[in-house]
Amino acid sequence: MARTPKAEGEIPSDIETLTFEQALAELEGIVKALESGQGALEASVAAYQRGAALRAHCERKLAEAEQKVQAIVEGPAGLTLRDVE
């Protein structure tokens, strides 16, 4: 059975190691499986919980990427990248 977050906002370590693309692909698979309506109730609930954790992970990865893009600033020498902490 898939591991689920123990607390609100906690992302399982196996999801933490996924790239954005890997997490999104797995999330898309879960959505398709849930939309088919063929799974057992318990399995569907577990899949939904994992999907929620994958969604949170993807959102965090997107926010991190957005911060990096926003760190590109225009100066006298043109566009530069400043460090984001």
Describe this protein's structure.
- The structure is a single chain.
- The protein is mainly alpha-helical.
- It has one domain (13-81): Helix Hairpins, CATH 1.10.287.
- Helix content is 60%, strand content 9%.
- It is built from three helices and two strands, in the order αααββ.
- The chain has helices at 13-16, 20-36, 41-70, and strands spanning 72-75, 78-81.
- It has a two-stranded antiparallel sheet.
- Strand 1 and strand 2 form a beta hairpin.
- The longest helix has 30 residues, at 41-70.
- The mean pLDDT is 86.
Spell out the key features of this protein.
85 residues; mainly alpha; Helix Hairpins; two-stranded antiparallel ribbon; 3 helices; 9% strand; elongated; EC 3.1.11.6; Exodeoxyribonuclease 7 small subunit
Short overview:
This protein is mainly alpha-helical and 85 residues long. It is built from three helices and two strands; from the N terminus they run αααββ. The protein has helices spanning 13-16, 20-36, 41-70; strands spanning 72-75, 78-81.
